[in-house]
Design brief:
Strand content: 15-25%
GO molecular function, one term: phospholipid binding
InterPro entries: ARF_GAP_AGD11/12/13 (IPR044518), ARFGAP/RecO (IPR037278), ArfGAP_dom_sf (IPR038508), C2_dom (IPR000008), C2_domain_sf (IPR035892)
Largest sheet: 2 strands, antiparallel
Radius of gyration: 22 Å
CATH architecture of one domain: Sandwich
Strand order of the largest sheet: 1-4
Number of strands: 4
Structural class: alpha+beta
Protein name: C2 domain-containing protein
CATH topology of one domain: Immunoglobulin-like
CATH superfamily of one domain: C2 domain
Pfam family, one: C2
Number of helices: 4
CATH class of one domain: Mainly Beta
């Protein structure tokens, strides 16, 4: 999960086309509804961007053989989901100004820098050699993926 950016990032991909009339189940939702949702999300990939869907005969056979699972998710979600081909919806421009009173890492070096990450993207300031009160005044840029979800700063 860490390699793909965590659970929130994975959900932003697998639930990108989740219809408004089919809310995500809550912990107290009936088991039948939770089961339908999970199968629709992962087996039939109903809420995934169509170009990312992976189809396999084995997966389809196992889904079709389960008569107890209602296909209400797949019958509505693909019909009403608009195709959005944008990979990114915006850009963050973060100005890293300065650090003050930073802790000494070890006796020989204290070379601070700042790393920002968003999904698999990373941006880093320059390294300020032997400076516990560095001044960067650098702008770091990160692209915001479509359906990334809330950003935490």
């Amino acid at each position: 999960m860490i390699e793909v950016g965590g659970n929130s990032y994975a959900n932003s991909i697998y639930e990108a086309f989740l219809p408004k009339d089919h809310p995500k189940p809550k912990p107290d939702s009936p088991m039948e509804y939770r089961t339908k949702f999970i199968r629709a999300k992962y087996e039939t990939q109903d809420f995934l961007k169509p170009s990312l869907r992976i189809s396999s005969k084995a997966g389809l056979e196992s889904t079709n053989s389960l008569n107890s699972v209602d296909n209400s998710f797949s019958s509505t979600s693909r019909k009403h989901a608009p195709e959005d081909t944008r990979e990114f919806v915006g850009q963050l421009n973060i100005t890293v100004v300065k650090g003050s009173g930073l802790a000494v890492r070890d006796m020989l070096t204290s070379d601070p820098y700042v790393v920002l990450s968003l999904g698999e993207q990373k941006a880093q300031t320059t390294v300020k050699a032997s400076d516990l009160n560095p001044v960067w005044n650098e702008v770091l840029n990160l692209s915001v993926p479509r359906n990334y979800g809330p950003l935490k700063l």
